[in-house]
Structure formats: structure tokens, C-alpha cells
Please model this.
Amino acid sequence: MEAGSSGNGDGAAPTALAKWGSDVSRVFQYYLDRSTPHTPGRWLGTLAIAMVYTLRVYLLQGFYIVTYGLGIYLINLLIGFLSPMVDPEMEVLGDGPSLPTRGSDEFKPFMRRLPEFKFWYAITKAFLVAFVMTFFSAFDVPVFWPILLCYWMVLFFLTMKRQILHMIKYKYIPFNVGKQKYTGKKARPGTD
Model:
């Protein structure tokens, strides 16, 4: 028998577990990659998960701290989704690309700090983690939920106000309104 070998086959267990973990990770990534072009379906699935979570919290009449934490995290993700990759306030003039600030500036597409797919994935994971947390009574801290709701709404309002003012100041719109189509020259009324 070799030195360091226990003889009962324990060396194979970590290898088999690592292989199984690798296989599960590969399959998960495969389906995640396949879901990428199906944006409406992904968001409908996340909406269904959110509704199940909301129904569970409503029926249990608890886990308000978990829901509040989830809401704060969702605000943080939303800010990342609405923010440009390079913040014009932090950028020193002449160092790399910037958003156009005048009509004569060159068009540069809006690049998000948090891309849509990662935004969706993070929201879905957050709802799943919060859902799992509702199965553990340690996370059901008794609180007066209307105060948490009011505080979250004030926080959301102030955060969105700051973000909208930032959008107005630097003249960017973080949403695609579709591809612009050339319609040709429009004839002025009274000319043929």
C-alpha cells in the first residue's frame, strides 16, 4: 500500500463530486446561454417568480425585512442599469469616450454599466434567494412593515430623482426606442 492512501477509496469521492459540480455548472450555463435571445420570456419567468415570492410573503404575513433588503438591492440594480458605463461627471476631459453633450457632437451609443442580461440574471437570483430565505424563521424579524414601505418609497423617489436629473444634465436616454427608419423627404404642404 502506498503512503498517504487510506485504502478505502476516499480519494475518488472529491473527484466525482468535482466532476458532478462541473457537469451541473456546464448544463446550467448551456441553458442560460440559450435563454439569452428570449428577452420577453426571461422577464415573464422572473415576473412569475416575483409573484410567487410576493404571494408567499403575503400568505405568511412576515419576512418584511427580507423583502425590504430585496427592494434595496433592486434599486441598486436599477441604478446600475440606468447609468452609463462611463460616468460623465467622473470623466476627465480628453480621457476616452464620453456621451455627447451638444447636438453637434458625434453620436455614441449608450453603454450601460449593468447590461440587460446581467440585470435580469441578478434580479432573478435575488428573488430566488429571498424566496429560499422565507423557509427559515431566523429571517422573520418582527417589524412594523408600513414604516419600511414608506422608507423604501422615499428612498426610491430620491434615488430616481437624482438619476433622472443626471440623465437630463448629460442628455442621455438609457432605453432603446427601436431602430430609427428613414422615411424619405417629406413634401411641404402646397408644393408638388
